[in-house]
Amino acid sequence: MGLAKVAYDYTTESSAQALALYNAANETYAEDPAATSKCYSADAKKAYAPSAWAIASLDAVAGLDGGRDLASARVLNGDSWSKDHLLSPFTTKVSFGRVDVPQDGWVASYVVVTPVNGAVTLSKDYVAFPGVDTPIEYFIGINSGSVPSGNAHERFVFAALASKTTPSASAKSSTIDYSAAVVTVTDVVSKKTLAVSDLKPRFYNSFIDGLPNSLSFRVAGLSVNRAYTVKVSGVKVNGAARSYEYPVSLLGKK
């Protein structure tokens, strides 16, 4: 929620694919390519460069067909920097690379997504995940069953923005203050309040691409195909207290 539409960047696709090949050849991920390693190329190095952060993942799936939506489900699952990068509201273009390596009864998929920031003017002054009608596998992981389990990897992410046009304006704790933040999650129908825990603020003071900041948290008792309201209060933006409210629902697997 709060994200702008993005275009596919064919000009950086070869770099993303080169990094995926490098990762597969060296059985690694999220690593700065070394010239002495297998399948090194300038394109692979370019994809990993700070100007275009690469998001890499390694997953074992039961055959090639099991890899549907692998990239999105893998990087959106968990408390990871890759999630914060994919959720950047300032991303205008992305490219994609993937190499599947068949193993004995399973497939190792090496995926790279390279989000590139650009000039945008946002409609909202916050970003939130999950949002309305978020597929459950994007929240719990593609190989994690069909309902939320409440484990440590199932985290909501919220980011307040001090500017709708300038990413770095929201990248410091002196600008966005979560120290007194309170999060409540309410079932729209039953009016029941769910337990929220483990609030973790994160800031990117050396901002490159991705979310300039994030507040992640866990919610117990979630169900699929139900509507919830999330309220984040007590946030200070440039010294002024702010509250935010947004809807959430998780779609069950079909």
Radius of gyration: 19 Å
Q: What is the overall number of helices?
A: 5
Shape label: globular
Q: N- to C-terminal separation?
A: 23 Å
Our estimate of the beta-strand percent is: 35-45%
Could you tell me the mean pLDDT?
A: 82
Number of strands: 14
Range of helix content: 10-25%
Order of helices and strands: EHHEHHEEEEHEEEEEEEE
Unreliable runs: 62-68
Main beta-sheet strand count, sense and barrel state: 6 strands, mixed
Structural class, judged by helices and strands? alpha+beta
Labels describing this entry:
254 residues; alpha+beta; six-stranded mixed β-sheet; four-stranded mixed β-sheet; 5 helices; globular
Could you walk me through the main structural features you see in this protein, from its secondary elements to its overall organization?
With 254 residues, the chain is α+β, with helices and mostly antiparallel strands. 15% of the residues lie in helices and 36% in strands. It contains five helices and 14 strands. The protein has helices at residues 13-26, 42-48, 70-76, 81-86, 136-140; strands spanning 7-8, 55-61, 91-102, 107-117, 126-129, 134-135, 156-160, 176-177, 182-187, 193-194, 196-203, 213-219, 227-237, 240-251. Strands 6, 8, 9, 10, 13 and 14 form a six-stranded mixed beta sheet that branches. Strands 1-3-4-2 form a four-stranded mixed beta sheet. A hairpin with a 4-residue loop joins β3 (91-102) and β4. α1 (13-26) packs across α2. It is globular and about 55 Å long. The two termini are 23 Å apart. Residues 62-68 have low confidence and may be disordered.
